[in-house]
Structure formats: structure tokens, C-alpha cells
Specification:
Elements lengths: L13 E8 L4 H6 L7 H25 L4 E4 L1 H6 L1 H9 L3 E4 L12 H19 L5 E2 L10 H7 L4 E2 L9 E5 L2 E5 L9 H4 L14 H18 L2 E6 L1 H4 L2 H4 L1 H12 L2 E3 L2 H11 L25
Parallel strand pairs: 1-2, 1-8, 1-9, 2-3, 4-5, 5-7
Antiparallel strand pairs: 6-7
Helix pairs in contact: 2-11, 8-11
Amino acid sequence: MSAPRFQWPDGSHCACVVSFDVDAESAVLQVDRKYATHATTMSHQAYGPRVGVPRLLEQLRAAGIRATFFVPGFTAECYPDTVRRIVADGHEVGWHGYMHELPLDLTVAEQRSVLERAAEVLEPLTGERPVGYRAPWWQLTLESPGLLASAGFHYDSSLMDDDVPYLLASDAGTVVELPVHWSFDDWEQYGFFIDPPLGDSLEPPGKLLEIWQGELEAFREEGCLQVLTMHPFLSGRPARSRTIGKFVTFARELGGVWFATAREIAEHARGVLDDSGARRLRSALDPAYGMRDGDAT
């Protein structure tokens, strides 16, 4: 067996972040504001903060783990008690844009403005500035690392080019990247929408659990980081929510899995990683795209 790809604390073989994107109505309203008058569609999204989050908090409490909830500003303003409840249970709250706006559709100035609103919206509810960011739809821009560093964020969780933490470089400093992937997103299994057409999947919870457990076994062997991403309006349904407890039980029987918040993972990674190995985002048309010392073979 090859050496572990990353150094984890206390003899752990790998790490796992359980995270939630509390999109609520914002994800659909970002597609088109006309859906604001579609009562059934809005009720489908409101299920997340109203019913899903409380149920998921119970599951997390029973499993004995702390999670990270990425919350759009619009959600926080519409459901402030939901955010307070998340914090009261000891979980981390990160920033997920204001109206779930796609960063790729924004100017640099608009991207900066959205990031700067994070503290203004979340700090009164959580008692501290958010240090973590996840781009809506995971669509980071080339300017994002510098904007995040300038706005005081410590880490991002939006990119897919690795399965261990690494540093993103910019002229404004570095931020830790905690990579994600569609295979760890509940939307791919549960995301069913009539209108807007954002998904057509209605898979059983057992399929999602099978995928996540299989990947965890492989990640444990290689020393990787598994970032699970769930949406309360999807995974907050009764049978689906129980997947959390089943997954945690499986991981604990496997052994050597460190469950931590995204912030805790980022803080650990910051102490392990060397700034000299930080990666800088480039356009794929840049001749130097993706190339760093030692990459070429």
C-alpha cells in the first residue's frame, strides 16, 4: 500500500466533512424570480429550513458529530431562527452567496460585494464572521481565491481537482481548498424537479449510502478527505435523514475516520501545508494551465 496522501491527526487514516447547503427558496429564485409566486415550488424549498434542518440536527446529535452548514444570505434573512438553531447545536455556518447567484455570471465587483455581505448577514446570527465559503453550484471563478482572501475567508469548498486539502494562491494571500465531487452530493440521487427542470432523480437512500460507503473505504486506504454535501429540502426527508446515522456507524466500525467541521479540517490543513506548494487558478487556455513543479512527467 502506498503512503497516505495526507497527514491526519491522532492516527486517523482519513477525514470526513458532513456538510449541508441550506438553499431553501434561493436556489430556485436564482433561476427565475417568477417562481416566487409558484406556491408548491416554494413550499418544496421551504421544507428545508422549516422541517429538514431540525430533523437533520436530531440525526447529527444522535450520531455525535458536528457539521458545516453553508447558508445563502437570503435564507438566513428569511429563517434567522434556523441559523440560530444550527449554531446552538455546535455546528459551523459558512457562506453560500446571497441569492445563490452564479459567480460566473457576476462581474468581479459584484462577486466582491456578495462576499463582503457575508459578515453583515451572518455575524449577527452566529456571533462570528464566517470563515468558510462554498460557491453556489460549486462554480468558482478565477478571481475567487483573491476575493476570498481579501474578504477574510480561510477556506473554500467548491473545486474538484483533488481529494485532499490544498492551498489556493492569489496576490491577496492563500485560502485552503477542501475539494468536493458530484458523487458525494445528494442532489444527484434525490434532486427531482418538475419546474424548474433542475433534476430528475428519485433514488432510494440505500443507493446513496452504498456509493458513500464504497468511496469511504477507498479514501481510508489512500488517506483522503471525503466532503459529503446534502440539501435539507432533499436529505431532510425522514428515510433519507437516517442515512447520516447509518453512514457514521459504518465509518466508526471501519475505524480511523476523523469527522470534523470544514473549519476544523481547514485549520489542520493550514498547519500541514506549505505555501510554496499553493496552486494558482488559471484559464484552461493559458499555456501554463495546471502545471506546477513536478507535474510534468
